[in-house]
Design goal:
369 residues; 12 helices; alpha/beta; AtuA_N; 3-stranded antiparallel β-sheet; 32% helix; globular; Acyclic terpene utilisation N-terminal domain-containing protein
């Protein structure tokens, strides 16, 4: 196994979703021996929600993730005093606006942290141009071309890589804010900056990509999404957040925040490795990771060593998420009581789904017969 030294890269993950625990950021900044803290606030759910909000409001609404500010603000003094850098994708569809707010909060706190934001992920104009030039935009989900979709796109956001993040750190940023970057991109960006890697360092980039995959979902790898959950120690109510310790050749350890519930084992790491991958080749816009030879070995309590990851050139394209207005969905809940319940339920169903009644109110939204 690799040996750690003063140059070893240590990255903690403070968030795996917009609903993750807010206190983690400050806890990690105050107590963990790390140089970087990353967090993932984006999902396909809030991508579309933020996109729709921005389009519907014509840019007047706030379409960043406000929960990030709740997490960041109490951590700011520790970030500055301990010289910890941050990379997150909490910008949603309003990264520039989030940048302005973070800058103001730092100023109000009397701190001197430098903040950068990464743009380029909003690509609706580019998508429209490419469509007009014959690009089919084939769906990764069902294989159909975009032209076969029955909805009209209103917004497009691509999954950016790591190099904007690495460059921002290189130019002096302490906090880098992104919109839609791939989930692992903040971790790759931190590693590329820390070790001075370039685009040709494919094996190291692949290792950082996989390291990011292990910790991007925060406590998934410490037992939060684990079929063996009955073996977790303690009450499992306050799972520790994961930490990566990476060496310059890319090999790394997965460990976790101390003093908390949860665990890091070979099995929790295997479970997370298999989550969302396409197969033995795992694609990112900066590198393709080869997973067919990966080794996952125990290295002590709550500590697993990962090595033997291969790296290949990235694909010529990146993924893009396209949002459209798909219609409306409604639910009606009634509690039926007394006698003749089945008949009452049948009557209610007829009333709810009577097209003649619905058409009086919802004619605009009903499909043609």
């Amino acid at each position: 196994m690799g040996s750690l030294n003063d140059s070893t890269l240590r990255i903690a993950s403070a968030s795996g979703s917009v609903t993750d625990r807010r206190h983690a950021f400050a806890d990690l900044a105050k107590n963990e021996n790390v140089q970087f803290i990353v967090g993932d606030w984006m999902s396909e759910y809030n991508m579309t929600m933020r996109a729709g909000g921005k389009v519907n409001s014509e840019g007047t609404s706030d379409e960043y993730e406000a929960s990030f500010l709740e997490a960041l603000e109490p951590a700011l003094p520790y970030l500055e005093s301990r010289k910890i850098k941050v990379a997150v994708n909490a910008g949603g569809s309003d990264t520039r606006k989030l940048h302005s707010i973070v800058v103001e909060k730092i100023k109000s706190a009397g701190l001197k942290l430098q903040v950068a934001w990464v743009g380029g992920d909003e690509v609706m104009d580019a998508v429209q141009r490419a469509r007009s030039q014959g690009n089919p935009f084939k769906s990764l989900t069902n294989g159909k071309n975009l032209s076969e979709w029955e909805f009209d796109p209103i917004y497009a956001q691509c999954y950016l890589g790591c190099w904007g993040i690495a460059e921002a750190f290189k130019q002096g940023a302490d906090i880098v804010l992104c919109g839609r970057v791939a989930d692992a991109s903040p971790i790759i960006g931190c590693a590329a900056y820390h070790y001075g890697w370039n685009r040709e360092d494919l094996q190291q980039l692949a290792c950082a990509f996989v390291a990011g995959h292990f910790i991007e979902c925060s406590t998934y790898v410490t037992g939060g999404n684990f079929s063996g959950f009955k073996s977790l120690p303690g009450q499992s109510v306050d799972l520790g957040f994961p930490v990566i310790e990476m060496m310059s050749n890319g090999d790394f350890y997965v460990t976790m925040q101390q003093g908390h519930d949860g665990m890091v084992t070979v099995d929790t790491c295997k479970a997370q490795l298999l989550y969302e991958i396409q197969g033995p080749l795992y694609y990112h816009s900066d590198v393709v990771a080869r997973l067919d030879g990966i080794k996952i070995e125990p290295a002590g309590k709550d500590r697993v060593f990962i090595t033997n990851i291969g790296g290949q050139k990235p694909p010529p394209t990146t993924k893009v998420g396209i949002t459209a207005k798909g219609g409306f969905q409604a639910e009606a809940h009634y509690f039926l009581c007394g006698l003749d319940i089945e008949e009452k339920a049948a009557l209610l169903e007829r009333q709810l789904f009577c097209r003649r009644v619905l058409s009086n109110t919802f004619a605009t939204f009903l499909p043609k017969e």
